[in-house]
Amino acid sequence: MRKIQRLSPSLINKIAAGEVIERPASVVKELMENAVDAGATRIDVRVEGGGAELVRVVDSGGGIAADELMLAVASHATSKLAEADDLFRVATLGFRGEALASIAEVSRLTIRSRTADSASGAEIEVVGGTASEVSPCGCPVGTTVEVRNLFFNTPVRRKFLRSKQTELGHTSEAVTRIALARPDVHFTLGHNQRQTLDLPGGQDWRARIAAVAGRSLAEGLIWVESEHGDVQLSGYVAHPSHSRGNSRMQYLFLNGRYIRDRALQHALSEAYRGLLLTGRYPIAFLRLDMPPELVDVNVHPTKLEVRFQNADRLYSQLLSTLRAKFLSADLTARVESVPDDDPAGAHDEGQTAQVRQQVVDWAKGEIASWERPSTGGAGGATSAGSAGAGQPAPLELTRLGRAWPPAEDTPDDQPPTGSHAAAWARGPHATGPAPEAFPDAPLKAMQVHNRYLVTETEEGVMVIDQHALHERILYEQLRARVTSGAVESQRLLVPEPVDLSPAEAAAVLEHQELLAKLGVRIEPFGGDTILVAGYPAMLANMNPGEVLRGLVDRLLAGGRLPDQRDLLDDLLHTIACKAAIKAGDRLAPEEIEALLARRHLIDDAHHCPHGRPTAVIFSREELDRQFKRV
Ligand code: ADP
Ligand code: MG
Question: Which of 310, 482, 609, 616 counts the most CB atoms within 10 A of its CB?
Answer without folding.
Answer: 609
